[in-house]
Amino acid sequence: MAAIEILGLEKTYMVGFWRQRPKRALKPLHLAVEAGEIFGFLGPNGAGKTTTLKMLMGLVFPTAGTARILGREWTDPEVKAQIGFLPEQPYFYDYLTAHELLDYYGQLSGVPAANRKRRIEEVLARVGLTDIKGMQLRKFSKGMLQRAGIAQAILHNPKVVFLDEPMSGLDPLGRREVRDLMEQLKQEGTTVFFSTHILSDAEALCDRVAIIHLGELRGVGAVEELTSSVQGKVEVVWQGTQIPASMKALGAECHVSGDTVRAILPDTHQDAAIDALRRERLRLIAITPLRTTLEAYFVEKLQHSQTTAGTLA
Amino acid sequence: MTTRKQTTIIAAAVFAVSMASCVLLLRQIDKTRSIPIVDDSLYISSPKLVKRASLGFDGLMACIYWTRAVQYFGHRHYVREHSYNELAPLLGITTTLDPHLLPAYQFGAAFLAPRPPNGAGQPDRAIQLMDYGIAHNPDEWHLYYDLGFVYYTELHDYKKAGEVFERGSKVPNAHPFLKVLAAQMAEHAEDFATARMLWITAYQTTQDKSIQQNALEHLRAIKVDEDVTNLQIAVARFNQREGHFPTSMWELAAAEHLPGVPVDPDGNAYELTFDGRVLVANPDDFSFISRGLPPGYKPGIPKFHTRPEGTPLP
Amino acid sequence: MTARIVHIASNTFREAVRDRVLYNLIAFALLLSGAAIFVGQISIEIERLVVVNLGLTAVSLFGVVIAIFIGIGLVSKEIEKRTLYTVLSRPVRRWEFIVGKFFGLAGTLVVNTFFMAIGVFAALLYVAHKFAAADASILVALYFIILEFLIICSLALLFSSFSSPLLSAVFAFSLFVIGSFADDLRGFAFMTHGLARWIATGAAYLVPNFSTLNVISNVAHQQPVGLQLILHNTLYALCYTAMALSGAVLIFERRNLK
């Protein structure tokens, strides 16, 4: 069963002085997330990621479309007991301590009083917040706040966790810790849905991703599928400084350093490249496939949509 | 039905029901609550203090006090109270806050001077108020009129009244009657014509309903007094001629060649006693008459009539 | 359901306390003691009158200011600071949030009033040296002031649910002032005619009627307050509060939290 099914959610805001002009924040979105996977929701700023998340949380009402979370209507209040949410750049009641905050949230989420204390300690340890007893949240650093935010999202053992830019404001060590945490959650069977514009994180973590731009879905799938759909490249290194014309004809970018030449060309031309070298009697040193990054995929998709958008406009 | 829809319906229902209940409860509360306008209003009884407490919003406070003064008087008048001790202070505060609130002076002249139950019975306070008003609004002819009015009706000081009317007639745009009244004060102060002129002026130059009603009632009374006086003279004439009083109004009317039996402004015939006294049929309907009353008559609460549209003033 | 409302209410109370709201009690205490001592020096007959009037008026005004300034922040501040997002992503209904906030704020004011009442009675004892039987009616005046607070809190929440903190404060304050003159508004309505009369009368009934809840001068003059009035005022305050809160719920349920 899909943990999250987004069935055509869309949002159009009316802007302008008399609220006349429609502004489409999100075009009808169709997406499904399987249980137990880590799903990345990628896109540049203003793409519609936060809007989607807010709609799923019931903070914003969709103009059209519905969604199901864990098989139930997303507006069902009972569903909320099973999900956790970390908003972008969260801010909490700064007059509370972390313990009090989690206690409050635990009460609201229906965590029984008997377990609450224990659970709070567990969760705080898990996110790496120690020695903070009695310290009001207004004194927390950004990184600490982010951890507190994750703590409150997982406090009540939700089955699905929604994280909006969970890495923002964290130093590299912190990001690593969060990544590890997310992996752990996946091990425990929790579905993680997170949005980010940092692609390397997504690449490292996600089973599947969706790319959204200007309110529209541009691509969905497993990371490998997507990256492989973009043309792969291969690096060919040979002895000497000679660059055969046939190489150039294959579209190679050649670079001479010392007495070797490195050429990067599409991997479909790999065999042709080897033949060219043999014909010229050049000595092959190495052939290395270059893995395309998600970034390349991303950029290509966005450029494409920008052109499309350009032509449409 | 989604929970959201459910909530909306319940909230809308609660909203409607509670709003209706609020209105109903307020009406209930009004009935049970005595209007404590006065106590509140005069907690700060010094006008100067009120002015300071208004934080500069004198105009608004003046309006509020003026409203309260009118309500105060109207409420007590309605329930037939016999004292209006707070009227003078209320008007005093109103005019201290806004010396140009002309209706307040008019109201004071009309209802501070007369004796209870028609007024507060404080002609000296009325004069004080008028003097204050004139000092601050020397070009308002009506204030002179109001002051003269008090001298005339309550204090019967015709000399003073004449002086005031004279001063007032010199003000630009003064009502032409002022000059006439000034002249009349000298010799014909007590004439019915003079009194009538005074009260007609009062009636015609005010917007205030209570003042109009008051003036109307006085005009009715003047008419009756005039009628009775004239009829009494006719009776005396008859007596001199015939040696005895007329046996009935018919006889008198015939002797005087009157078109019919003389009637009062309500259309009721005047009565004639066997000893030649002319009486009004229903003295209770004429609150301010001084003639035509049966012996030992004690006036009750003044009644006020309204004039139907189109009928002439008596 | 009730549990969540109670939790939200106690959190709101905790916020008010930590926001150092209760420090106003110090200002109040200073004011009242100063007045009591001063009054005791200057006059003989009216000290009781002044202390009761001043004390109760201060309770009322301080409370209204607190109610408005905390109340308007209740919802607006939460949206602005996004603390609301993590609350509403839990099984909390939006209407529970509003009701919980209301009880939290009302509770804060009741506690505040309780301490202030002690102050008033203490000052009274100081100037009059003993209590009279009629002083019990001061409790009625305080009860009415609390009813006033309930209405103000609910109005503050209502405005806070859709408008910015500044505008909400302006609206709430204006309604408080107009509501205090509700009797005069009715008087104005009587003196007008036609359409103006309809509008004025409508306004006079819709505006919260604080004049009927203000028995401070009566109590200062040791006049008793009728049982019927107490009953009617209680019902009125409850109905008005219900009206404002249901309005707030209706608006808040529909609001997109951007």
The biggest sheet of chain A, with number of strands, parallel, antiparallel or mixed sense and barrel status, is: 6 strands, mixed
Structural class of chain A: alpha/beta
The radius of gyration computed from the alpha-carbon positions of chain C, rounded to a whole number of angstroms, is 20 Å
> Which bin fits the share of residues in helices of chain A?
25-40%
Strand content of chain A: 25-35%
Shape of chain A: elongated
Query: Count of DSSP E strands of chain C?
Result: 0
Give the end-to-end Cα distance of chain C, rounded to a whole number of Å. Answer: 26 Å
What's the multimeric state?
heterotrimer
Which two protein chains have the largest interface (Cβ within 8 Å of the partner's Cβ), and how many residues from each? B-C, 30 and 34 residues
In DSSP terms (H or I, runs of 4 or more residues), the helix count of chain C works out at: 11
Question: What are the low-pLDDT stretches of chain C, counting only 5+ consecutive residues below 50?
Answer: none
* Average pLDDT number of chain C: 85
SSE run of chain C:
HHHHHHHHHHH
If you had to describe this structure to a student in words, what would you say it looks like?
- The complex is a heterotrimer of chains A (313), B (314) and C (258).
- In chain A, the strands form 3 sheets. A 6-stranded mixed beta sheet of chain A has the order 6-7-8-3-9-10, sandwiched between helices. Chain A has a 4-stranded antiparallel beta sheet with strand order 2-1-4-5, with helices on one face.
- Chain A is an alpha/beta fold and 313 residues long.
- Chain A has 10 helices and 14 strands.
- In chain A, helix 2 packs across helix 3 (113-127) and helix 3 packs across helix 4.
- Chain B is 61% helix and 1% strand.
- In chain B, helix 5 (87-97) runs antiparallel to helix 6 and helix 9 runs antiparallel to helix 10 (177-187).
- Classes of the chains: A alpha/beta (313), B mainly alpha (314), C mainly alpha (258).
- Chains in contact: A-B, A-C, B-C.
- Chain A binds chain B through residues 73, 75-77, and chain B through 2-4.
List the helices and strands and how they pair.
The complex is a heterotrimer of chains A (313), B (314) and C (258).
Chain A: E1 2-15, E2 21-34, E3 38-42, H1 49-57, E4 64-69, E5 72-73, E6 83-86, H2 98-109, H3 113-127, H4 142-154, E7 160-164, H5 172-187, E8 191-196, H6 199-205, E9 208-213, E10 216-222, H7 223-229, E11 233-239, H8 245-249, E12 253-257, E13 260-266, H9 270-279, E14 284-290, H10 294-312
Parallel strand pairs in A: 3-8, 3-9, 6-7, 7-8
Antiparallel strand pairs in A: 1-2, 1-4, 4-5, 9-10, 11-13, 11-14, 12-13
Chain B: H1 3-32, H2 37-41, H3 47-53, H4 58-78, H5 87-97, H6 102-112, H7 123-136, H8 141-155, H9 158-169, H10 177-187, H11 192-204, H12 209-242, H13 249-255, E1 271-272, E2 278-279
Antiparallel strand pairs in B: 1-2
Helix pairs in contact in B: 3-5, 4-5, 5-6, 5-7, 6-7, 6-8, 7-8, 8-9, 9-10, 10-11, 11-12
Chain C: H1 2-18, H2 24-42, H3 47-80, H4 83-88, H5 94-128, H6 136-160, H7 165-180, H8 182-191, H9 194-206, H10 216-220, H11 227-254
Helix pairs in contact in C: 1-5, 2-3, 2-5, 3-5, 3-6, 3-7, 5-6, 5-11, 6-7, 6-11, 8-9
